[in-house]
Design a protein that fits this description.
Blueprint (H helix, E strand, L loop, with lengths): L4 E10 L2 E11 L4 E5 L6 H8 L7 E6 L8 H4 L2 E5 L10 H11 L5 H10 L13 H15 L3 E5 L7 H17 L3 E5 L3 H4 L5 E6 L2 E7 H5 L2 E7 H8 L4 E7 L2 E7 L4 H9 L3 E4 L2 H8 L5
Parallel strand pairs: 3-7, 3-8, 5-6, 6-7
Antiparallel strand pairs: 1-2, 1-4, 8-9, 10-12, 10-13, 11-12
Length: 290
């Protein structure tokens, strides 16, 4: 069975608040998706629907061609991991992993043991006695070792320090190569994680702003720097994301496909042209009131 995801005009309301508005997209197997959005954009709401924590208010979501909500076959193949408050979780780490193995049909105990050693997780310690970083490491261990066809990480790695996050990113890429599936990574650490993404989805105020493969999207972010008058002439009529000026020198970010013709024109005008990062693109595409 191929566990692709298709959303069609998905909307989600909490009483009078519309968290998601007519969101449509398709996610294909064997890809890593980066889900970006400012606070309150609707990221967790969307992921909770995909994980069957909530049903849609309007529109549809289908996973492997079926509605996932209250569908046991689909639900056991979707893992949703997020920052969790474990203060009341008195079970030991080893017992928690044993419980997870019963409900995840693709769970790999041998791989889990490898990850436990990698992250130095104490098997005989109660989960609520672990540090925040260790709890995050446990969460990603469960997510990776479950090898669910759809695995969602919603900021579940924030508690880990930078070196441990890098270990997680490396493991995710290695395991994706061996056991390809859909990964969805929701994050604010855009500059740190962008190299992981095959495709990017950006949510803004409950709507899907764009869905594009990483290479195509980042090729549309261009910085143009030079004498202010020339920069203004070059960027006239183009979509400007950001503009900065120091004395007579101006630097402008534009959103447009980069072509040889564009490069040649900039060179003829004595302008410096270059790429901009996914993080800068994300920031400037979603500017405005949150």
């Amino acid at each position: 069975m191929v566990f692709n995801i298709e959303a069609d005009n998905l909307s989600l309301k909490y009483k009078d608040f519309e968290a998601l508005k007519n969101v449509s997209f398709k996610l294909e197997n064997e890809k890593i998706y980066g889900l970006l959005g400012r606070n309150g954009a609707g990221k967790t709401s969307l992921l909770s629907v995909l994980a069957s924590y909530r049903n849609t208010s309007e529109g549809t979501v289908k996973i492997a061609g079926e509605c996932p909500f209250e569908n046991p076959h689909i639900m056991q193949n979707v893992s949703f991991h997020f920052e969790t408050d474990y203060q009341d979780e008195t079970a030991k780490v080893k017992n928690m992993l044993k419980t997870v193995s019963k409900y995840r049909p693709n769970y790999d105990a041998e791989y889990a043991e490898y990850l436990i050693n990698l992250f130095s997780l104490p098997l005989n310690k109660s989960v609520n006695k672990l540090s925040k970083g260790m709890q995050s490491a446990l969460e990603v261990t469960i997510g990776l070792a479950s090898r669910s066809p759809i695995t969602i990480f919603d900021e579940s790695y924030l508690g880990m320090d930078a070196p441990t996050r890098v270990k997680f990113y490396d493991e995710l890429l290695k395991d994706q190569e061996k056991y390809p599936r859909i990964f969805i990574l929701s994050t604010h650490l855009v500059s740190e994680m962008d190299y992981l993404f095959d495709e990017v989805l950006i949510l803004h105020k409950g709507r899907l702003l764009l869905q594009e493969d990483y290479e195509s999207l980042t090729s549309k972010g261009i910085s143009v720097t030079g004498y202010s008058g020339d920069v203004d002439e070059f960027t006239q009529g183009r979509k400007i994301l950001n503009s900065q000026q120091l004395g007579g020198t101006k630097s402008v970010m534009i959103y447009e496909e980069r072509t040889d013709e564009l490069d040649n024109k900039a060179h003829e005008m004595g302008l410096e042209i270059g790429p901009i990062s996914l993080q800068d693109l994300f920031i400037h595409l979603t500017e405005g009131e949150e």
